[in-house]
Amino acid sequence: MPFCRECGKEIEDDWKTCPFCSVEINSEKTSISDTVIMGDYNVQTNIESKGNVKNHILTLIDALEEGREDRALEIFELAKKIDYDLAIQLYNVDYNKQITELKINLIKTELLLIEKRSETSWLDSSEESLDKLREKSSAMKVIISKCQDLFNYTDNDVLALDLLYEIWRYTPVLVSKTFGQLSHDWFINKYDEIGEVKRSEDAKFLKKAAEIRRQEGVDAIKDMLKMGLGLFLFGVFVIIMIVI
Length: 244
Description:
With 244 residues, the protein is mainly α. Helices cover 69% and strands 6% of the residues.
């Protein structure tokens, strides 16, 4: 599908004017074909406007805002065919921040949907509860894969790091299968590397809270074992007394 050179929106082949910016479509060419005669050679060249590549990237951003990730990828591939180096520059550098934020928002939206779909009710049967857990696990694997793609795109973005930290605390085992063995200390170091002192301190607090909860759990188990042993010994004592 062609694009309007003026606004970058998708247009139909038979449209005479762009419905978004009112520019006459027939008067503009998305590509100009020139034949250059050099000796015995006919050289066919396609001249594309640099602005057309930028319009493709802007349209890609529109697609991400609408939640159309697959379409955004298609548009990026089209932009690379026009001018590969310029498309990479715009995508990876010039519009990196904006694209990263949009991708993060899409992942967060998916997380909310997963939480909503996986909510269990006392009315659910055991099989229904298990099905929801399986579906949740499968959906989280997709989310984690998208996080990995996001980190390949921008590994030092603080919002991307926040997102990964949140998901890791939510499902550490699944995340570690993709990213390797992570820990609170790993995130603390990453925050320190990019100069995020406040987030580093928050991570240290979360680490301490997790250690306290873990120790409380261990203490509770020990208390239960002690209580169980005490009851057992008391039972033995009662039996002995009865026998005697």
